[in-house]
C-alpha cells in the first residue's frame, strides 16, 4: 500500500481542529444549527475526539476534531491521527485550527494511521484520506511515510518469510526502484573476502549469511548506513528462553530502519553518496554453531572472545562497520536492535543514540523534537572501555556484570568504526508494544525521520 494524500478535487469534507480552550470561540462564529448540534452532543474537544456534523441531507458536512490541551499534547504525538479510526470513508481537508508549525507532523501522522500489515490476514483499512494542509510538501511527506511503511512491513514479516535471502530480495527491490547499485557477498565467500564474524554468526543456519552492499548517488558527502540484519535470533548455544524469543523476528529492525531511511533519502534526492551495509544472518543452533569461549578473528584484525552467543548483533556489525570505515565516509551511522539494557534505560518509546560530538547530538535532539521522532543521547563512556578488554583477546563481546550494557555494546562497535570516521550508533527497539495514534502494535521505525531532518546540517548539504 502506497501512502498518498487526497486531491482537493475529491470534494473533501472540512475538518475543524479545536483546542479545549477555544471551543466556545469557534462556536460563537458558527450558524445557530451548528451551535445547537454541538451543544446537544455535549461535545468536549479531547485529543482526537470526533464530532460529525450533518448537513440538511443527513450526510456529513463538517467534522470537529478535538486538539485537547497543551499538557495533554505533550504526553503523546500524532494527535490528529487519533481521529482517523472514527471517521467515515472519504476525503478530508483541514479548514481551521491546525497550527502551521505542526501541520507537517500531523499530516504525516494521518498518512501513517492508514498502515495495516495485511500480508496474511485482514482487509485493507477504509480509505480516510487527507488533502495535504497548506504549506506542507506533499511529495516529501509521502516519501517519508512510504519509507516508514517499508520498515514496518519488513519487521512485521515473520522469520519464515523474512530470512537473509528475503531481506536481500527486499534490498534489491529498493535498489531497482531507485536505480541504485547492489552487491551481495554470500556464504563461504564471506570468508574468502574477509568477513569472518558475519560468516561465523550465520553459518549454523540453512539460510546462508550475507553482506548486502547498496550504493546510490555519485556526488556530495559520503554517508554510510549500517543496519543489523539478524533475521531471527535464537540466542545461539546460549539459547534464549521462549518468552524472550517470541519477538525475535524484529531483530533485523536496524536493517529495516536503514532501508526505510534509504528510501526517504533516495526518493527525496538528497545530494549525498549513500551506501547501505546490511549484514544479514540468522543466529541458529546447529552442530557448527559458534560457542561460548570461542575467540574469533574480525575484518579489522581485532580478536573477539565470545562470552555469550546471544550478543551476536555486535559481531556482525563489527565486520560491516570495519568495511564501511575503509572508504572514510564523511559520516557513518549504525542502527540495531542491540541491547535489552537500552530498553531498561529508556523504555520502548525512546531511541538512545551515541556520538562523540556535542553539536551532532544537539542537532539530532532538536530534529527529534521537530518531527516527533524521540531520541535520547547516551554516552560513549570511556571509563567502561576496560570492561570490553578481557585480556585473553582484544575484545569481549559480552562483559560480565550486566551494568551499562548499552554503553559497553556501543563502545565495542566504535572500535570497529575507527577513530577517523564521524560515527553515531542508534540502539533502537523497532517495536510498538501497544497501539497508539499512527503507530499500530508491531514493527515501527525509530530515529530515521529525525536523522533525515538533521542530515542537511550534519553533512552541510
UniProtKB/TrEMBL annotation:
It comes from the Bacteria. GO terms for biological process: proteolysis. Keywords: Aminopeptidase, Hydrolase, Manganese, Protease. Pfam families: Peptidase_M17 (PF00883), Peptidase_M17_N_1 (PF21337). Its EC number is 3.4.11.23. InterPro entries: Leucine_aapep/pepB, Macro_dom-like, Peptidase_M17_C, Peptidase_M17_N_1. Belongs to the peptidase M17 family. This is Peptidase B.
